[in-house]
Amino acid sequence: MDLDIESNRQARNYSQKELFLRVLWGIGKFIFHNTPRIFFGLRVGILKLFGAKIGRSVHIYPSAVIYMPWNLAAGDYCAIGEDALIYNLGKITLGKNVTISHRAHVCAGTHDYTDPLFPLLKPAIVLQDNVWVCAGAFVGPGITIHEGAVVGAAAVVTKDVDAWTVVAGNPAAAIKKRILQSK
């Protein structure tokens, strides 16, 4: 049996509102990407203008790619690093103190490969408080990374990550517990 790619391409994957917002965001992201590196507040303001829910003191770098700002919620003191890809066809929610390091990919979009029509799916992703997604890591659709977990550099997360656990590898597997040192 072949995939029905022609029907897939004719499917309406986005509402009229989303299509309109995507056109507007094409202009908005041009401005976003051309802001000086230290203008974090301006970039947050631009994202909020397009429907993002963003807390206090959030740092998002100008080279980060936010696919659909209206599907992004980020708590206080989050950071999205250089060249990070937030592919948020579905909702991506970041708790407070979440860091997504440079070139990480958080992917809330996929296709149902078991259906010949290959329909687009938009499963939400949640990164709870105090999560760190390290450089070059991939977090797949529908994943929850629980509080305090660390996703190691270049790890590929295909299953939920337990709280205060460090995972690494492809596929990501638990390698130890995260223990914070007291000051």
Task: Give the topology string: H per helix, E per strand.
Answer: HHHEEEEEEEEEEEEEEEEEEE
What amount of the residues lies in strands?
25-35%
* Count of alpha and pi helical runs: 3
Strand order of the largest sheet: 2-5-8-13-16-18-19
What is the share of helical residues? Answer: 10-25%
Largest sheet: 7 strands, mixed
Report mean pLDDT, rounded to a whole number: 96
Number of domains: 1
| Molecular shape | flat
CATH evolutionary superfamily: Hexapeptide repeat proteins
**Sheet/helix structural class:** alpha/beta
The CA-CA distance between the termini, in Å, is: 61 Å
Description of the structure:
- There is one protein chain.
- The chain has helices at 5-10, 16-33, 40-49, and strands at 53-54, 59-60, 65-66, 72-74, 79-80, 85-87, 92-94, 99-100, 105-107, 110-111, 120-121, 125-127, 132-133, 138-139, 144-145, 150-151, 156-157, 165-168, 173-177.
- A hairpin with a 4-residue loop joins β18 and β19.
- It is α/β, with parallel strands linked by helices and 183 residues long.
- The strands form four sheets. It has a seven-stranded mixed β-sheet. A five-stranded parallel β-sheet has the order 1-4-7-12-15, with helices on one face.
- It has three helices and 19 strands.
- The chain is flat and about 60 Å long.
- α2 runs antiparallel to α3 (40-49).
- The chain has one domain: Hexapeptide repeat proteins (UDP N-Acetylglucosamine Acyltransferase, domain 1).
